[in-house]
Structures are given as structure tokens and as C-alpha cells.
Amino acid sequence: MSLNEILQPVTLPAWIVSLPLLAAVFSFVLPRIRVWAGIFTAIITPLMVVFLGREILAHGAIQMQVGGWEAPLGIYLHADGISAAMLGITAVIIGSISFYARSYFSGDVASRYFWPLWMFLWGALNALFLSGDIFNLYVTLELLGLSAVALVALSQTVDALSAAMRYLLVSLTGSLSYLMGVALLYAANGTLSIKLLATAGPASPSIATAFALMAAGLIMKTALFPMHFWLPPAHANAPAPVSAVLSALVVKASFYILMRLWLVIFEPFINPSTAQLIGVLGACAIIWGSVQALVAERLKLLVAYSTVAQIGYLFLVFPLSSIPQTNHTAWQGGFYFVLSHACAKSAAFLAAGTVIYSFGHDRIKDLHGIVRRMPVSMFAFALAGVSLIGLPPSGGFIAKWLYLNAALTGGQWWWCVLIILGSLLATAYVFRFFSRAFSYSPEEIERRPVPWAMEWTALGLALCALILGFIAPAVTTLLDAGNPF
Amino acid sequence: MSRENEDSLTSRTIKMMAAISVLALTSVLGWTVWTLPPFSDRMQRLVASNMAISGVENPVTAVLLNFRGYDTLLEIGVLLLAALGVFSAVPSPVILSKSTPSPILNLLLRLLLPFIILIGGYILWIGKYAPGGAFQAGAILAAGGILLSTAAVPFNRFALKTMPFAMGIGLVTFIVVALATMMVRGNFLQYPVAQAGTLILVIEAAATISISIILTILFIGGNPDASITAKDENSKASIIDKGNTTK
Amino acid sequence: MTISLLYALVGVVLLGIGLYSLVIYSHLVKKILALNVAGSGVFLFLVATAAQTTGPVPDPVPHAMVLTGIVVAVSATALALALACRIHQVTGTARLTENEPE
């Protein structure tokens, strides 16, 4: 059995799921090697994802029947362009943040359990993006939710524990609602596999109810307004590497599932006014999140509310895609948002974490003049801000441009107004922080030196957000691979 | 200030709104269930026709460990993850500190534990032919563990040193078997038909060990290894991310 | 009305009771219990689905789903209770305070 046979591209999905899970167990059982297990995974998994991406671009979507059983009896793993893009962004972000975390966690307590939990989170995300079975998605959602909650609670502060508890309760409610939807779909159709459900029967009330339940659960987990109340405390009080991953990837995972289910199963059956309603909720999220970010007193809270606002943009994809001509553009825009926001937001949180590491706090009004003192982190934050606002050349700009394109072509001009308004608000809250950071301050603030790995990881991720703006054709080609839309 | 007021939200409007919306949801759901199309037998017939090559004779075990084994793999991961979460969130165990030794419990344990272990092993074995299997056996053994903890029987050194391995062996065995079968037969978790039964038993045995120890730990609510928890308490000071001050 | 339909409806009612209690009560343990009741409702619905078959043996797939669901629910409940205990240890109360960090 040669190496070539073992590493056949079709087996890559299994390795991509298994490697982080194995690393998780080993870093718990053998604590001495935990950092090295994490770094090893952080290097190997992105390589595997790259190979998978190349394979998908060359030959289309990959499917793997787990256990050799065909659906509906067995579970299958499904990797198309979108999965590859999500896996890729996950690998880049978690891989980079692993290096950040190595320097960030110096105490024994947090570090002992951080690495196993971190690897479980990665494994859960990979399993989620590759799954093609609605019940399997439930298990991966739980795996993801529990690891995220445990990571939030690592801070051990009172606020972190309360935030973790709130997050856990919301997450469990969302999963339960999703599970009820799964049960309904199974009772009505006798199968759990997504591709078979695509040919589900005519619209019976069970389809609409199942969709309502599953969408409600997933919307709770993605923190769309008005179910966003758990997000700011959780993301603001978690350790910085955890906040970065939560905002960048964890909330996107439930959005990914909602998107998949919508595209493959539900779209023909759902009233277009539902799509408009979701869009309205997205609009409220953008406005409310931006306003709260404007008045936030702590840097991490500002960034967390910015996440609430940016999640609103994600959900605009539903009304924008309801018109057949603009369907494709809208979905490309939506996914571009996912990818660029992931990079930009993680960079912003990492930069905020560096600020806390150095100064011991993140109260904005006391952070005057820090541009001089930590130029690299501030530059990273600035680049992230560029993408969040949607200025060219950044991934955020491409995403908004695709959206504007879809809105204008489809004749839904009101979304254009909203998108531009959102950009103005984002400019306001980003510059609010920078006006403080740039202000002249003669006094020397007490601070500790920051390991270079932390600052440069933040900058690296911010540059990724920018690079996404330049490689738009390549990314859209990848997203289309395997014909997901 | 009655207890009633303390326990529920004081706002009556919120209670009314919640009641109305839950009532609406339940009725819609009930009506959906009422109007469900007749259930198709397709899945059942598929399972029945593939039982011969599944390696076991109990259809539920076949679905759990063979047809949909991937779900079970992830589920064992969820269990281990919960234990890790408990370890990191609650440094010192809640139950161990509160339980006191009792001669009555000790006598009961001396009588019960051999049977618990025997029945646990039997349930694990019989899972191939009748209701039973890894999770059921693990739960029974965990019941023994719970009795031990309530009787304040301390973990001895051997148990503490092997505890992490016992917790991890279920998931590791499952993943290793899955990867090995992938390298031999080309598909993740695809058992060769002749060895399917044996492989399933191996996986289930390892899983039973893990499940029982993890469930006991979940009951205890913390890490029974006092040396680790003492270190954890001491190094709390080096937590960096303070954000708000603790109230 | 068949027996399995009755059980399915009972499961739905349990789900409703659980969700209502989750919203109403502010004590953490009650919220966790409410989630468990709601979960049991969903599992009961699944088991009722399995019982609807015409053959002699019920459909094993929902049974496997319920088994997996129970394990996941136990794990989640354990984590939730551990957090609740920790919050009680640190703050002295077992209720989430409603103030958002400003």
C-alpha cells in the first residue's frame, strides 16, 4: 500500500476530520505535547485542505460514503467548492491563531485545556463543513457549540462564566429546535441525507414547519437580530484567540448549514416574503449592531457589536437571491462576506487581544496614543477596518459590490441604501476608535512587551482580508466548483 | 417577596407573551404531526436487507456502529469534550468534597459492585444479538462509579494515572479503526465483511471503558486528580484576559 | 388516532412545556431541567416515528438517533450544570444577572 494509495484525494475529507480530533485526544492524554500537537495540526491540516481544493477545482465535488453504505442507509461526506472555501478559511484562521495562542497562554490552567478544546473546535468545524446528512449536522453542531462554550469559560472571570452559560443555553435551544426539524423531515420523507431530501415530495405542511424550526434554531446560533443578545458578552469576555474564532467561524457554521438547507431542500417551497422578512431582520441587525458599536466603551465590545452588524449583511443574501437573475451574484456576495469578515474580524480581535496583553485593559477612552506604541497591531486593526467598512481593495469591498450589483439588477434598490448606510456606520465606529488611538499623549502608559508572533499573526490575517480583494476571480471560481448553486 | 415571585420573571406580560407564542408553536407543530404523510418503510427494508453483512444481529447496533457509525464516532467525541469542558470550568469536583464515608454504603457496594461489573460486561456482549451495546454497558458501569463517589471512595493512584487514557481510548480506537479500514478498503469506517463483528466489538469495548469513566466524571463534576486541581487553583493569577474586573 | 400518533403529540406538548419553562424561570437549574424536558419531547416524537412501521420490528434509525441524542443531551447538561455550579461558587447566586456589559 503505497503512500499514493493512502493519500488518495477521495480520502482527504476523512483525514481532515480525523486529524484535529486525534490531536485533541492526544493533547489531553499527554499534556506535555499539547502545544506541539496543536502546531503540527495547524501546519498539516491547511496542506490537506489545499490538496482537497485543487482536487475539487480539477474534478468537481467529491463525495465519500462513510462505511461504504449508500444513502439513505449511510452517511456521506460532501466536499464541493463552498466546503473547500470554508475549510480553507477555517484552516488559515485557526492555524494562524494557534501560533498566536502559543504566546498568549502562558499560565498552566488555561493552556492545559485550551489545546484539546481548540482542536475539538477545529475538528467540529471540519466535520460540519463536510457533512451531507442532517442528523450528522446536528451532532457536529453540538460538538461545535460545547467546545465554543468551554473555550469562552476559559477566562474564568465572572462575566466570562455568565456569558458562557447564556451562550450554552441559547445554543442548546437552537440545537433542539433544529433537531425537531430533522425529526419532522425524517418522519415525512424517510431519509436523513441532504441530496435525497432535495427530491423531497410536494410541499406538505411538514416542509414549512421543519424549515421554520431549523431556521429558528440556526438563526439563534448565528445571533441574528433579535437573537443576538448572547453574542456581545460571549465574544467580548472570552480570551482573545477564542473571540476571534467565535466571530470569524463559529457563527458562520450555523449560517453555512442554513444556506445549504435553503439551497438544496427548501428554496422552492418557501414563500418569497419569508426571504424579505429575513432581510428585514438583517437590516435591523446592521443598524442596531453598528449603533451599539458606536457607544461601546471597551474595544472588544466594539468589535463584538460589529460582528452583530456584519451578521446582518450575511442574511441579506436571502432576499437578494430570490430573483432568478441575481441569484448567483447574491450567493457569491454572501460567501465573500463570510470569507472576508472571517479574516477581518479575527484580525481585529487578535489586535484587541494584543492591546489587552500589553496594557492590561481595553477601555477605549484610556487607550490614547497607542498607535505609536504598537504600530503593527494598529496597522492590522486598520486593515481589518478597511475590509469591515468595505473600502477597496479588500474582500469586504468585493462582497458589498456583489451585493449592490445583485440589488440593483434585481430592482431591490432599498437594500442598496441599507448597505451604504451600513458602511457609513462602520466607518463611524472604526474611526471612533482610531481618533482615540491616534491622539497625542505625552505620558508613558505602563505596558508589557508583546511577543512578535501575536502582532504579526493579527497583521497576517488582516492582509488575508485584503488579499481576498485581489484574488476575486479565483475565489469565485472555487465557490462555483461542484455546482452548489 | 414569596418564593413564587423569586423563581419566575416578575413581568406578567412576558409570561403571557411566552405562553401565547409557545401555545401557537405547539398547535402548529401538533397539526403538522397530525397531517404527516404515512411513514414509508424504505429505511427499515434497507436495514433488514443489509443486516447479513453488517456483522451483528441487532438492527439498532448495526445502525449505530456500522451504517451510521460516523455519528457514533462524533458522539463519543462530544462526551469526551463535555468532560474536558467540566475539567476546565470547574477545577475541583463538587461531589467528592461533599460526600462522606458511610458503612451502609460500603456494605451495599461490596455486594453490588461485582454484579454491576458482570452485568455491564454482559450487556456489552449481548449488544450484538439483543438490545445492549457500548452506551448501555457504559451507563451501568457508570452507575457503579456514581455509587463509589457517593460513598466517598477515593480514586487510588493507579486510577488517577490511567484516567486520561481511559477517557481517550474510546475515541482513539474508533478513529484508528476507521482510518485503518480506509487504508485497506478505501472508505472511511468500511469494515471488511468477515471482520465486521470483531471490529465492532473492539470499538464497543474501548468505548465502554471511556463512556463509563466519563459519565462518572460528569457526575463528580470536576477532576478527581487533586494534584492537578491544586496547580490549577494556584496559577489562576496568570490568566491574562481580565476585561471587566471581577465583581 | 393510532398509539404512535398519540405519543408523537405528547412529545410535541412536552417540547412546548420545556420551551415555556425555559423562558419563564430565571433559576439556572430550572432552565437546564426545562431544556431536558424539551429534549425528551423531541426524543419521544422520534420514538413514536419509529413505532409507525407496519412490520414486526420498529425502524431502528430513529432509535439510533435517540440514543445519540440522549448522549449528547447528557453531555450538554453536564457542562451546563458544571457552569451553573461554578457561577454559584463565584457569585453566590444561581441566576444569570441580566445586566449587559456596557
Verbal overview:
The complex is a heterotrimer of chains A (485), B (247) and C (102). Chain A is mainly α. Chain A has helices spanning 3-6, 12-29, 34-59, 81-104, 108-130, 134-152, 158-189, 194-197, 205-222, 231-237, 240-266, 272-295, 299-315, 317-320, 327-359, 370-373, 375-389, 395-410, 413-438, 452-470, 472-480, and strands at residues 62-66, 75-79. In chain A, α6 (134-152) runs antiparallel to α11 (240-266), α7 (158-189) packs across α10 and α18 runs antiparallel to α19 (413-438). Chain B has eleven helices and no strands. Chain B is globular and about 55 Å long. The two termini of chain B are 25 Å apart. Chain C contains three helices and no strands. Chain A binds chain C through residues 135, 138-139, 142, 145-146, 149-150, 153, 158-159, 161-162, 164-166, 168-169, 172-173, 176, 179-180, 183, 186-187, 192, 229, 232-233, 236-237, 296-298, 301, and chain C through 8, 15, 19, 22, 28, 31-32, 35, 38-39, 42, 45-46, 49, 52, 61-62, 65, 68-69, 72, 75-76, 79-80, 83-84, 86-87, 90-91, 96-97, 100-102.
Notable traits:
heterotrimer, A: 485 residues, mainly alpha, two-stranded antiparallel ribbon, 21 helices, 2 strands, globular, C: mainly alpha, 3 helices, 75% helix
Q: What structural class do you assign from the helix and strand content of chain A?
A: mainly alpha
Mean of all residue-level pLDDT scores of chain A = 87
Beta-strand content of chain A: under 5%
Largest sheet of chain A: 2 strands, antiparallel
Please, how many domains of chain B?
Answer: 2
Task: Provide a count of the helices of chain B.
Answer: 11
Q: Which geometry of chain B do the CA atoms define?
A: globular
- Helix content, binned percent of chain B: over 70%
| Alpha-carbon Rg of chain A, integer | 21 Å
> Which consecutive residue ranges of chain B, at least 5 long each, have pLDDT under 50?
1-7, 237-247
| Envelope shape of chain A | globular
Q: Determine the N-to-C terminus distance of chain B.
A: 25 Å
Low confidence ranges of chain A: none
Q: What share of residues are in beta strands of chain B? A: under 5%
Number of helices of chain A: 21
